[in-house]
Amino acid sequence: MQNLSSLKYLDLKHSIVLEIPNGILSKLSCLQNLNVSETLVSGKEVGKLKKLEMVEGRFYDFQDLSMYLQGFHGREEPPKYIIHMGKRPFPVVILTTKGIELGDCNISNQIMLPRDIEELYAGNCTFCCHVNYPLFSRFVLTSLGTFSSLTYFEIRDVKNMKKLFSPNCVPLNLQVLKISLCVQLEEIIALDFESDERGMPTMEFSLLKLKKLVLEWLPELKSICNVDAVVVCESLKWIGVRDCPKLKRMPLKLPQLRPFSPLKLRIYVKPKEWWESAEWDDPDAKSLLKRFVNFVIW
What we know:
It comes from Gossypium klotzschianum. By secondary structure, the protein is mainly beta.
């Protein structure tokens, strides 16, 4: 190992090495680029590499992730990181340079995440809190922040989850939101109360940068948000709704939607009957959006 003490670049992404034993990385103090992909590494040891500029690897557990982040207390985290947690049920491609993948994990206690995370993926996980507790409230940043850097969020096959966001934890700069195969999910943005009063001001959630919204195979999904709320989407280019039979209302406010507007939008729907029965807050929305709709059979 003494001969490798000056090593700056370590790439094991195409190797068959399953794990880097404890005590190895701590001796590579000059490492700037660590790409071990699926190989297990100690997050605690990675966090002590002070010259690190890029890291991709698989950590042991959430405690290991927390120890990795604690290692950067008082100094900047690597500008590029892709960290995998748990088992990978199927291949996942992280599209940004700052992403976390949670695969086949039990989500119970709060999970510490990097303050500048841009992409978060959770697949084949189990939510081990009360079913009425919003899943996203389990994620916290290393600094007091609002997930302002998070642009891509995808969850797939998360069990025992009825609610995704509470009103105060919706990532406002999201560009892509994809939810699929979460068979118990009922609400995406869940309020703590239901208003029985008519004529109250409509609550607005602004997702002004959202470009892509995909909802697939969600048999219990009943609402995107409360009956007295709408989601303002000024940048939406893609809507996909597939096999969400209990979703009756689309509370999406599209300010750019006008007759003969140059709006470029793709809408993919299954089944056709859902589109015909779905209600939009804007009474003209369905007729204006009709030209963008594609009915899929798969």
